[in-house]
Amino acid sequence: MKAVAYLQAGLPIDDPAALVDVDLPQPVPGPRDLLVKVHAVSVNPVDTKVRHRAPVTEPRVLGWDAVGTVDAVGEAVTLFKPGEVVYYAGSINRPGSNAQYQLVDERIVARKPASLDDAQAAALPLTAITAWELLFDRLRIPEGQGEGEVLLVTGAAGGVGSILVQLARKLTALTVVGTASRPETQAWVRELGAHHVIDHSQPLGPQLQALGIEQVQHVASLTHTGSYYSQFIELLAPQGQLALIDDLPSLDAMPLKPKSLSLHWESMFTRSVFQTPDMQAQHDLLTRVAALIDAGTLRTTFGEHYGTINAANLRRAHALIESGKAKGKLVLEGFD
């Protein structure tokens, strides 16, 4: 089968060897696996991080977002049958979606939203899972609740931010403040439903005060947490919550103590990597997201179509992700 892989970690993305076209054997499903024929994929920051940091001794296929058709199922599969069109984010410890066929555990898969085409749906799984788990599982905001409380979302125009803003606005009573630094990304965040948008390239406190907001109860820090950490501690109300998803070389939690602030990490791969008893929660939440999409409550965070799934196009997509200037999700579709 056709696939795109990296053979050496750490190469700059403008090196043609950073991602290469390869031919690999078609995988065989295990007991709870679906063998999915991949139609479309999207690119996430985790793709670039793994490519830089994870050494390999054999070709490694990246990609943690896909839409495809179930081609075959394992002997213990109960949720799906061949021929169904599904969407999912996969597991970080298994070969990724940048291949014609991929194995994925049925418990982290759902049927594709019927109202979206493959490219539009491929933009959603990883970011929807991350945003949903951050909001409802880590911060534990009950649906329909949060009136009088403020959620500050930094990096709100990115993939996770684009769906988190929608979930918080549509499914809770929180006041949602998103951050973005460019006119086009600020407009995007407003369009997604944020009550207010401020510029994260400027001090956050004065901008919030200008909106009449002295303190916030919840912060979702989606990028460059280290740059804003001291501001978050200042802005958070006593007993507030800080949730983050990015990677930091270290983090001093002691400044959180005086206000009894709580710290929450979100990694959407935890359930699949550790095979947690509640692993099927990701199937359930993706099923719910699909229903919300089809009902018109949520919208896809599709940003730009980058062509067919091949090494050259994926290198271009990685380059834009690494630039930090992507708006919404970058999607590739089909194989040459």
TrEMBL record:
<keyword id="KW-0521">NADP</keyword>
<keyword id="KW-0560">Oxidoreductase</keyword>
<dbReference type="InterPro" id="IPR014182">
    <property type="entry name" value="ADH_Zn_typ-1"/>
</dbReference>
<keyword id="KW-0963">Cytoplasm</keyword>
<dbReference type="InterPro" id="IPR011032">
    <property type="entry name" value="GroES-like_sf"/>
</dbReference>
<comment type="similarity">
    <text>Belongs to the zinc-containing alcohol dehydrogenase family. Quinone oxidoreductase subfamily.</text>
</comment>
<keyword id="KW-0479">Metal-binding</keyword>
<comment type="subunit">
    <text>Homotetramer.</text>
</comment>
<dbReference type="InterPro" id="IPR051603">
    <property type="entry name" value="Zinc-ADH_QOR/CCCR"/>
</dbReference>
<dbReference type="InterPro" id="IPR036291">
    <property type="entry name" value="NAD(P)-bd_dom_sf"/>
</dbReference>
<dbReference type="InterPro" id="IPR002364">
    <property type="entry name" value="Quin_OxRdtase/zeta-crystal_CS"/>
</dbReference>
<keyword id="KW-0694">RNA-binding</keyword>
<dbReference type="Pfam" id="PF13602">
    <property type="entry name" value="ADH_zinc_N_2"/>
</dbReference>
<feature type="domain" description="Enoyl reductase (ER)">
    <location>
        <begin position="10"/>
        <end position="332"/>
    </location>
</feature>
<protein>
    <recommendedName>
        <fullName>Zinc-type alcohol dehydrogenase-like protein</fullName>
    </recommendedName>
</protein>
<dbReference type="Pfam" id="PF08240">
    <property type="entry name" value="ADH_N"/>
</dbReference>
<keyword id="KW-0862">Zinc</keyword>
<dbReference type="InterPro" id="IPR020843">
    <property type="entry name" value="ER"/>
</dbReference>
<dbReference type="InterPro" id="IPR013154">
    <property type="entry name" value="ADH-like_N"/>
</dbReference>
